[in-house]
Structures
1.
Amino acid sequence: MSISEFFLKMKGGAKSPPGVAKEELVWSWLGAMTGIGLCAYLSARYFEPRELSLLIGSFGASAVLVYGAIKSPLAQPRNLVGGHVFSGLAGVACYQLFGDTLWIAAAMAVSLAIVLMLATKTLHPPGGATALIAVIGGPKVHDLGFLYPFLPAGAGAVVLLVVALIINNLSKNRRYPEYWV
């Protein structure tokens, strides 16, 4: 491949996706507001007083998928929950093995999370952040050890899922999930 052919590939070729109907905007907003709000409320009320959490940054990206891109394979229940759990396991393991050299632990965590998600058919891009948070999240996250993939990562993903099942199916024009497994 020549250099010009290489750069021509970056031009793209597909048309921009169509706009989104106002009704979709409202349902996406309501889902994200409810899902993230519920995780934050439960975290503040019940988990943080016990030195735990039910809220991690990667849930923001999960909310985009499960409330805004509900037909995407990356937004389906298996991907949402499995992606966070497998990525959390990868992140904790890599921090425990390579945590003395943070840049190696971070790179290994994200790359291993991708491989695990691909191998288990649970690819969920926010999982990459879940793995990275296990490495760079500081003492509060590190102290959780192998609890982290399940609480907050798995349990919070389940909360987002329950809200997605309810909110996304209230609309006559939306249906979630497309499939379970």
2.
Amino acid sequence: MPLPLGGPKGSGLSLMIESLAGVLGGASILTKVLGPERSTRNAQNALLVVMDVAAFRPDGGYFQDADTLADIIKGLPLRDGFDEILLPGERGRRTETERRQKGIPLPADTWNALKTVAQACGIELPTPKT
């Protein structure tokens, strides 16, 4: 199990999400891992929260305030050895952009295994980007 980040607050947040995503939906991961079962199998659950922003912010200022908050966070002083503060999703978007341009890197063994399966199925693979 990954350890929660952020000390007691992170632990509390982790427990809250496990309760909502796992226990509420009947797919608790922690009870299987930490309980009598002591499961080591990979497990997954999910939580989707949908909110009507206008119900909370009828003035329409939410997105502007969220952008301001993001700008403030990105402008905080950097720790030594760091060039930038990344917000959730930024690294993934950059990786997606790069992979759309350059392709998805695959180890040679994986590519060769895919070729073997494709040949057996009569499928022509695309030419790899180099």
